[in-house]
What does this fold into?
Amino acid sequence: MIAPGYVAILDPFAPEAQDIVRASPPLESMPPEIIERAINRVKWKSSKERIVDTSASAIQSEIWSFYLMCQGIAAVSYPYSREVRLVTEATREAIKYRMYDLFKRRHEDLCLDVVERYFKFVQLEREGRIKLKNTEIPREDYFKLRDKRLAEDGVEIVDDRALSQYVPKYAVRWTDLALLMRYRRAELTKLYVVNGWAVITPRELWDIFANFIGTKTEEYIASLYEHFSESGVPSKLLNSVGEKISALIPPEAELRERFIRIPRGKLRPEFFPPCVKKALGGVGAGGRNYAIAVLLTSFLSYARVSPSGKVAMRMADFIDDISIVREEIVPLILEAAEHCNPPFFKDQPQEKANIFYHLGFGMTLEPRLNDSGKSKWYRTPNCNKVQISAPSLCEPDEFCRKIKNPLTYYYRRLAEQAMERSGD
Amino acid sequence: MQFREATLEERKRFYSEEWGKKDLPDFILHTLSLREFGFDYGEGPSHRYNQFMTVEQLADFLKNKSPYAAYASVALYEQPSMRKGWLKSELVFDVDAKDLPLKSCNCSGGAVCEKCLDEARQIAVMFAETLRSDLDLHNVNFVYSGRGFHVRVNDDAVMTMEQTERAQIIEYVTGSVVPADMTMALGYSHIFRDRVARTFERLSEQKMLDIGMRKALAQQLIKEKDKVLALMRKGQLQELQNFSGMGEKTFQQLLESLKKLNSELTDGKVTIDTKRILRLPSSLHSGVSMKCILVRNIENFSIEDAIPKFARERA
It folds into this structure.
């Protein structure tokens, strides 16, 4: 008999999991084994590592370590960075394996109970004819669906138990898959939709649910990042956990990243948020300082220099060539300043040095790499700060609804575009 | 039927004598205060960010201003006059007769005729059928826009969807992605087969030559159109390669062209734009002197229903 609270290991966002989070100790008293588990989660390869014992302490350890992992990565990384993808991929794989394991151990009901919280679904009727809510599914289609799924997994000969994973068994409302469609983790034209129901196999059910939790994890980390941007990272422990996870990224993933996922490299102004585009065009007298020295300076520097994923105190942690600052970032800031009315640096030339101060080089007009870290490298303000401090800059487009920080907007759009290109 | 521009006097007459709030569809009427309204006084729809709290306010405005064109957003907002607080948006397909990829009439440029309007109507019907039966959406409405038809879906399940999801619905409804298996009886496979066959049926010899097909092959395909269509409807597209001169490359080019033509059945930009303003049903399309109207029975749609009194009297 499995306790109902066990659903938390399939859905760390479920109320049962939230209860466990509320009972967690302060960060500074987090048990070492939880810290270790949080770091090692991304390394899990074996079934033994992914399966969670049914005891209350095992479930607790699983949930605390999941949240510690997310918070650690949000402390040192950016939304949609390769660190975040490493974490979400590990989460997806773990959830998928647990679903498989529970099915295998005849606990299908527990899985369906969790799935049903997010997706309306029905089981196909199989009494003679195969029916879905009074619509008969042609037998040929039924077997073609099975064979298609087998072919997709490269499976040729399977035993009866494995075969049952590939046989269409459920149907979910296609509209419930909207979140997955948004991230292209489900494609409408690849689904077999009848009367609004997408017919799926048990394996697809595990995939759908694991992808769904993976996407929610990604969104959760993005919200944490925005929270930390505003209030600061609450603990050294989170930084340390995040750094250790970050160090576990396999080199091949980093290499693939460069070719497939883009973010690193030249700035892509077409993906800038509306507020940054507006600031680049110059603003009037009242909002110049905020637009140029606060928003543009932080946004352009982080967007250009650190899409590799990490937050750092010094720009020199990311670059070994000051020309990136002098030739790629600063000219854009100077040009935007010139577009202001009146031009920003004409009547306030002292503000030029302030730009380098905000970039972390101290008060200077000739930044050198060695100066990096002399002052604080300011992070990009959250949208609510921009709204309050420079309301004229904030003309949100549809995409802005999804984010709370201008940098998140940029990373997310880059990631989406990269995903489309790679056909992911 | 002549599609002539309306004069200012005719617009005034229309809005003071003929326009009535009863002509507004329920899906607009019940959400009026949550929509952004836009108006065109002859220079394009540049007067945006308007909000009306009551239908009476809208009526007064239309009567007083007699705009060249009136629009309402597909989106519902907390503050429509600032376009802030997006709540949800209708899912819309714009089927414009003047932009149809394959027309059987001789209209050119921005012109439309009753023939291409009817072709646009048929496409709108086809889309609605897929939306209703395959995707199980129920609140599907047709609007005659003056130069074509809008299919406007007001089911909550799709109204909160964003651009990526909407783009996927376009692919599904238009048949612009080749499925892995074209032979399944139900699902997207059958939609793709229907759309591809429909498009091929309308391909002229010249269009086939434009695709890069050799003349002899194009002529043979035209001659054996019924056979080709039967193969397509059965999902046996690969067998087209048995036609002499249809190598793998030509076959792929044909398939690509059919997909592309399918995708042009509707203006995808309209569907994915969740802040779009669309011509207000009940308003006057002054460019062609036709009423933009909700079409309750699309099968029996008659363009006569959309002709304003002043245009009738002109004739």
Observations:
- The longest strand of chain B covers residues 84-89.
- Chain B touches chain A through 32 residues (CB under 8 Å).
- Residues 205 and 222 of chain B are 7 Å apart (CA to CA).
- Chain B has a mean pLDDT of 92.
